[in-house]
Protein backbone atom coordinates (compact mmCIF):
# COMPACT_ATOMS: atom_id res chain seq x y z
CA UNK A 1 0.00 0.00 0.00
CA UNK A 2 2.69 2.43 -0.98
CA UNK A 3 0.35 3.99 -3.44
CA UNK A 4 -2.13 6.48 -2.05
CA UNK A 5 -4.61 4.67 0.03
CA UNK A 6 -8.21 4.78 -0.88
CA UNK A 7 -10.70 4.90 1.92
CA UNK A 8 -14.33 4.62 1.49
CA UNK A 9 -16.47 6.64 3.93
CA UNK A 10 -20.22 6.90 3.51
CA UNK A 11 -19.93 6.17 -0.16
CA UNK A 12 -17.21 8.77 -0.77
CA UNK A 13 -13.70 7.88 -1.87
CA UNK A 14 -10.77 9.82 -0.44
CA UNK A 15 -7.17 9.55 -1.56
CA UNK A 16 -4.66 9.86 1.28
CA UNK A 17 -0.96 9.16 1.55
CA UNK A 18 0.43 7.45 4.68
CA UNK A 19 2.13 10.68 5.70
CA UNK A 20 -1.13 12.61 5.44
CA UNK A 21 -2.85 9.94 7.52
CA UNK A 22 -0.23 10.27 10.29
CA UNK A 23 -0.56 14.06 10.29
CA UNK A 24 -4.36 13.79 10.46
CA UNK A 25 -4.05 11.35 13.36
CA UNK A 26 -1.73 13.75 15.22
CA UNK A 27 -4.12 16.62 14.55
CA UNK A 28 -7.04 14.55 15.84
CA UNK A 29 -5.16 13.61 19.01
CA UNK A 30 -4.28 17.30 19.52
CA UNK A 31 -7.92 18.25 19.09
CA UNK A 32 -8.98 15.50 21.46
CA UNK A 33 -6.50 16.75 24.08
CA UNK A 34 -7.77 20.30 23.65
CA UNK A 35 -11.36 19.07 23.89
CA UNK A 36 -10.54 17.16 27.08
CA UNK A 37 -8.89 20.26 28.53
CA UNK A 38 -11.88 22.44 27.63
CA UNK A 39 -14.28 19.93 29.20
CA UNK A 40 -12.19 19.99 32.38
CA UNK A 41 -12.27 23.81 32.44
CA UNK A 42 -16.02 23.74 31.82
CA UNK A 43 -16.53 21.34 34.73
CA UNK A 44 -14.38 23.57 36.97
CA UNK A 45 -16.44 26.61 35.96
CA UNK A 46 -19.71 24.77 36.63
CA UNK A 47 -18.41 23.74 40.05
CA UNK A 48 -17.27 27.30 40.80
CA UNK A 49 -20.64 28.69 39.69
CA UNK A 50 -22.51 26.21 41.90
CA UNK A 51 -20.33 27.15 44.88
CA UNK A 52 -20.85 30.88 44.27
CA UNK A 53 -24.60 30.39 44.01
CA UNK A 54 -24.64 28.43 47.26
CA UNK A 55 -22.45 31.05 48.94
CA UNK A 56 -24.75 33.86 47.77
CA UNK A 57 -27.82 31.96 48.95
CA UNK A 58 -26.22 31.47 52.38
CA UNK A 59 -25.29 35.17 52.49
CA UNK A 60 -28.88 36.16 51.66
CA UNK A 61 -30.26 33.87 54.37
CA UNK A 62 -27.74 35.26 56.87
CA UNK A 63 -28.77 38.82 55.99
CA UNK A 64 -32.45 38.02 56.52
CA UNK A 65 -31.67 36.42 59.89
CA UNK A 66 -29.44 39.33 60.99
CA UNK A 67 -32.14 41.82 60.00
CA UNK A 68 -34.73 39.88 62.02
CA UNK A 69 -32.35 39.67 65.00
CA UNK A 70 -31.74 43.44 64.85
CA UNK A 71 -35.50 44.10 64.68
CA UNK A 72 -36.11 41.79 67.66
CA UNK A 73 -33.31 43.45 69.65
CA UNK A 74 -34.71 46.91 68.90
CA UNK A 75 -38.20 45.92 69.96
CA UNK A 76 -36.90 44.25 73.12
CA UNK A 77 -34.78 47.23 74.14
CA UNK A 78 -37.69 49.58 73.43
CA UNK A 79 -40.39 47.62 75.25
CA UNK A 80 -38.34 46.56 78.28
CA UNK A 81 -38.37 49.96 80.07
CA UNK A 82 -42.16 50.08 79.82
CA UNK A 83 -42.75 46.71 81.46
CA UNK A 84 -42.09 48.27 84.89
CA UNK A 85 -44.56 51.02 84.06
CA UNK A 86 -47.21 48.41 83.20
CA UNK A 87 -46.48 46.53 86.43
CA UNK A 88 -47.00 49.71 88.44
CA UNK A 89 -50.28 50.48 86.65
CA UNK A 90 -51.52 46.99 87.49
CA UNK A 91 -50.52 47.48 91.14
CA UNK A 92 -52.33 50.84 91.16
CA UNK A 93 -55.51 49.20 89.88
CA UNK A 94 -55.38 46.61 92.67
CA UNK A 95 -54.63 49.18 95.37
CA UNK A 96 -57.26 50.31 97.85
CA UNK A 97 -56.30 53.84 98.74
CA UNK A 98 -57.57 57.36 98.89
CA UNK A 99 -57.87 59.51 95.81
CA UNK A 100 -54.79 61.44 96.92
CA UNK A 101 -52.76 58.22 97.28
CA UNK A 102 -53.87 57.05 93.82
CA UNK A 103 -53.00 60.45 92.36
CA UNK A 104 -49.56 60.31 93.97
CA UNK A 105 -49.06 56.78 92.60
CA UNK A 106 -50.08 57.82 89.09
CA UNK A 107 -47.65 60.77 89.25
CA UNK A 108 -44.85 58.35 90.16
CA UNK A 109 -45.82 56.10 87.25
CA UNK A 110 -45.84 59.12 84.92
CA UNK A 111 -42.35 60.04 86.13
CA UNK A 112 -41.22 56.46 85.49
CA UNK A 113 -42.72 56.65 81.99
CA UNK A 114 -40.93 59.93 81.26
CA UNK A 115 -37.64 58.40 82.43
CA UNK A 116 -38.20 55.40 80.13
CA UNK A 117 -38.77 57.77 77.19
CA UNK A 118 -35.65 59.78 78.05
CA UNK A 119 -33.69 56.52 78.02
CA UNK A 120 -34.80 56.12 74.40
CA UNK A 121 -33.78 59.75 73.60
CA UNK A 122 -37.43 60.82 73.38
CA UNK A 123 -37.97 64.30 74.82
CA UNK A 124 -41.00 66.55 75.10
CA UNK A 125 -41.28 69.53 72.78
CA UNK A 126 -40.85 72.84 74.60
CA UNK A 127 -44.19 74.63 74.71
CA UNK A 128 -45.46 77.09 77.34
CA UNK A 129 -43.58 80.38 77.18
CA UNK A 130 -41.88 79.66 73.84
CA UNK A 131 -42.68 81.23 70.49
CA UNK A 132 -45.05 79.27 68.27
CA UNK A 133 -43.06 77.12 65.81
CA UNK A 134 -45.18 75.40 63.14
CA UNK A 135 -42.48 72.72 62.77
CA UNK A 136 -43.09 71.41 66.32
CA UNK A 137 -46.41 72.98 67.41
CA UNK A 138 -49.93 72.63 66.12
CA UNK A 139 -52.17 75.57 67.09
CA UNK A 140 -55.71 74.66 68.08
CA UNK A 141 -56.72 78.19 68.89
CA UNK A 142 -55.64 81.51 70.28
CA UNK A 143 -56.14 83.42 73.52
CA UNK A 144 -56.70 87.21 73.36
CA UNK A 145 -54.18 88.97 75.60
CA UNK A 146 -52.13 92.16 75.82
CA UNK A 147 -49.80 90.80 78.52
CA UNK A 148 -47.89 88.38 76.31
CA UNK A 149 -46.24 88.74 72.89
CA UNK A 150 -48.17 87.68 69.82
CA UNK A 151 -47.77 83.98 68.91
CA UNK A 152 -46.33 82.95 72.27
CA UNK A 153 -47.52 79.53 73.42
CA UNK A 154 -49.94 80.07 76.31
CA UNK A 155 -51.42 76.61 76.90
CA UNK A 156 -50.39 73.05 76.15
CA UNK A 157 -53.30 70.74 75.31
CA UNK A 158 -51.25 67.67 74.37
CA UNK A 159 -47.49 67.15 74.68
CA UNK A 160 -45.43 66.79 71.57
CA UNK A 161 -42.33 64.58 71.40
CA UNK A 162 -39.07 64.43 69.48
CA UNK A 163 -36.48 61.69 69.23
CA UNK A 164 -33.21 63.56 68.94
CA UNK A 165 -34.10 66.13 66.24
CA UNK A 166 -36.88 64.15 64.54
CA UNK A 167 -40.43 65.11 65.47
CA UNK A 168 -42.57 62.16 66.56
CA UNK A 169 -45.71 64.22 67.02
CA UNK A 170 -46.38 67.97 67.32
CA UNK A 171 -47.56 69.56 70.53
CA UNK A 172 -51.16 70.78 70.47
CA UNK A 173 -51.19 74.34 71.86
CA UNK A 174 -53.13 77.57 72.19
CA UNK A 175 -51.20 80.71 71.37
CA UNK A 176 -51.41 84.33 72.44
CA UNK A 177 -53.09 86.78 70.14
CA UNK A 178 -51.94 90.28 71.03
CA UNK A 179 -53.91 92.75 68.91
CA UNK A 180 -51.74 95.64 70.13
CA UNK A 181 -48.64 94.08 68.56
CA UNK A 182 -50.46 93.15 65.37
CA UNK A 183 -51.63 96.78 64.91
CA UNK A 184 -48.05 98.10 65.18
From TrEMBL:
Question: What are the protein's UniProt keywords?
Answer: Chaperone, Cytoplasm, Stress response
Alphabetically, which GO biological process terms does the record hold? protein folding
Q: Where in the cell is it found?
A: Cytoplasm
Source taxon at top rank? Bacteria
Q: Taking the first listed entry, what is the main subcellular location of this protein, grouped into a coarse class?
A: cytoplasm
Region Disordered: which residues? 1-42
Which Gene Ontology cellular component annotation is one that this UniProt entry carries?
cytoplasm
Which GO terms of the molecular function aspect are on file? adenyl-nucleotide exchange factor activity; protein homodimerization activity; protein-folding chaperone binding; unfolded protein binding
Q: Where is the composition biased (Acidic residues)?
A: 1-10
Pfam families the record matches = GrpE
InterPro entries in the cross-refs: GrpE, GrpE_CC, GrpE_head
Role, per record: Participates actively in the response to hyperosmotic and heat shock by preventing the aggregation of stress-denatured proteins, in association with DnaK and GrpE. It is the nucleotide exchange factor for DnaK and may function as a thermosensor. Unfolded proteins bind initially to DnaJ; upon interaction with the DnaJ-bound protein, DnaK hydrolyzes its bound ATP, resulting in the formation of a stable complex. GrpE releases ADP from DnaK; ATP binding to DnaK triggers the release of the substrate protein, thus completing the reaction cycle.
Can you state the subunit structure given in the record?
Homodimer.
What is the similarity comment for this entry? Belongs to the GrpE family.
Q: What name is this protein filed under?
A: Protein GrpE
Amino acid sequence: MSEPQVEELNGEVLDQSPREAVEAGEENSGLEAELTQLKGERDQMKDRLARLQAEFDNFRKRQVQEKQDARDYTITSTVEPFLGVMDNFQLALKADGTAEQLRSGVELILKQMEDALKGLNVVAVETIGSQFDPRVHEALGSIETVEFPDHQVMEEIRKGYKIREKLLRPALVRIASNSAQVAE
